[in-house]
Structures are given as structure tokens and as C-alpha cells.
């Protein structure tokens, strides 16, 4: 929720059409202890999640940055959405963690291609903390800007991602799946 929404906000400001999603069973946020996360269904409004954590422990969730993050998220969109239930089709899907990349690939693999429309699925690993989310948003924005400048992304993407990987010193995973 932190990494993808930071990138979402950044890309929208740059004028890109963007959607962001989760892929897990539920929205999981850190709780008062590592073994007791706060879990919410997808579709629960960010306002409700924010108010729930505010009631649980305003000081703790302010100090750990969750209230700030949720405040940002609710200014971007009303609630968290689950990728696997979306009916939208995309040209490019970017994930910020290899586990999520694997879930997206698995979802496409479980579906029969109906439209024969390719989608580039790309992963750039970003640690889940505020500083790395901000750095990751800049990196993703740079990468998306380069993609948008391509006249033929299908032919240019391998070289583009290779160059980008060398520049940012982070491994990039990518593949093409079909809707």
C-alpha cells in the first residue's frame, strides 16, 4: 500500500493515467505487534481504516507513519482495490515486490487469453518503508517516462529495461502476459 500508492501519486502528478492495486487476500497494515497486523477487506474506505487506527492508538499510528500514509492514500482514491477482481486491461503493470510480481503472473497464467492483448509486467524491488517508497516512486516515474517516449514499446522494452537496470542498480524482472 505504501510503495504502490507513493508511485501512484507521483505518476498522476506527471500526467500519467494510473491505477494501483493490492494482490493479497486482505489489506494488511502493521499492528501494535508484528504477529497482530490490522487486516481489512479490499473496498473498505481509507477514511474508515484511518478512523479505526485513530481510535485504536492515535499516538502509535502517528509515530509509525500509518496515519500519514492513509491520509495520503485517501486523497488519491477512496479505497484499496484488489488486482485480481479488476476488469480493466493495462498496457503495463509495475510491481514493487517479487512476491507481488509472482502473484500477478500466476493470475494471468490461470486465465485464458480472450483479447490477445499483451501486457508488460515489470517488477522493481522496493523496500517497504517511507524513504524507499519515495525513491522508488522517482525510479518508477523515470522508467515510465522512458516507456512513454518509445514509439514501439514491444520492441524497445528489453533494451529500455536493461539500460534502466544498469542506471538504478536494482534488478528488474519483466515478462509479457496476455489478456
UniProtKB/TrEMBL annotation:
EC number assigned by the record: 3.1.3.16
Compartments where located: Nucleus
Any GO MF annotation of the entry: protein serine/threonine phosphatase activity
Keyword Hydrolase in record: yes
Reaction equation(s) it catalyzes: O-phospho-L-threonyl-[protein] + H2O = L-threonyl-[protein] + phosphate; O-phospho-L-seryl-[protein] + H2O = L-seryl-[protein] + phosphate
Protein's GO biological process: mRNA processing
InterPro entries: RNA_pol_II_suA
GO cellular component terms, semicolon-separated: nucleus
Main EC class the enzyme belongs to: hydrolase
Keyword tags: Hydrolase, mRNA processing, Nucleus, Protein phosphatase
Keyword Transcription: no
Major location category of this protein: nucleus
Family recorded in the similarity comment: Belongs to the SSU72 phosphatase family.
Function description: Protein phosphatase that catalyzes the dephosphorylation of the C-terminal domain of RNA polymerase II. Plays a role in RNA processing and termination.
Name of the protein this chain belongs to: RNA polymerase II subunit A C-terminal domain phosphatase SSU72
Species annotation: Parnassius apollo (Apollo butterfly)
Amino acid at each position: 500500500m505504501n510503495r504502490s500508492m507513493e508511485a501512484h501519486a507521483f505518476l498522476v502528478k506527471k500526467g500519467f493515467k494510473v491505477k494501483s492495486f493490492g494482490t493479497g487476500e486482505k489489506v494488511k497494515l502493521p499492528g501494535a505487534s508484528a504477529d497482530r497486523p490490522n487486516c481489512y477487506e479490499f473496498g473498505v474506505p481509507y477514511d474508515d481504516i484511518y478512523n479505526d487506527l485513530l481510535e485504536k492508538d492515535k499516538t502509535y499510528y502517528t509515530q509509525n507513519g500509518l496515519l500519514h500514509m492513509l491520509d495520503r492514500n485517501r486523497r488519491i482514491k477512496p479505497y484499496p482495490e484488489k488486482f485480481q477482481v479488476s476488469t480493466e486491461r493495462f498496457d503495463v503493470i509495475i510491481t514493487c515486490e517479487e512476491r507481488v510480481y509472482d502473484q500477478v503472473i500466476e493470475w494471468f497464467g490461470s486465465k485464458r487469453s480472450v483479447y490477445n492483448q499483451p501486457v508488460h509486467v515489470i517488477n522493481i524491488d522496493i523496500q517497504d518503508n517511507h524513504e524507499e517508497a519515495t525513491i522508488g516512486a522517482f525510479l518508477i516515474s523515470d522508467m515510465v517516462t522512458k516507456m512513454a517516449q518509445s514509439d514501439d514499446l514491444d520492441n524497445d522494452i528489453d533494451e529500455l529495461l536493461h539500460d534502466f537496470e544498469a542506471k538504478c542498480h536494482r534488478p528488474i524482472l519483466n515478462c509479457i502476459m496476455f489478456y
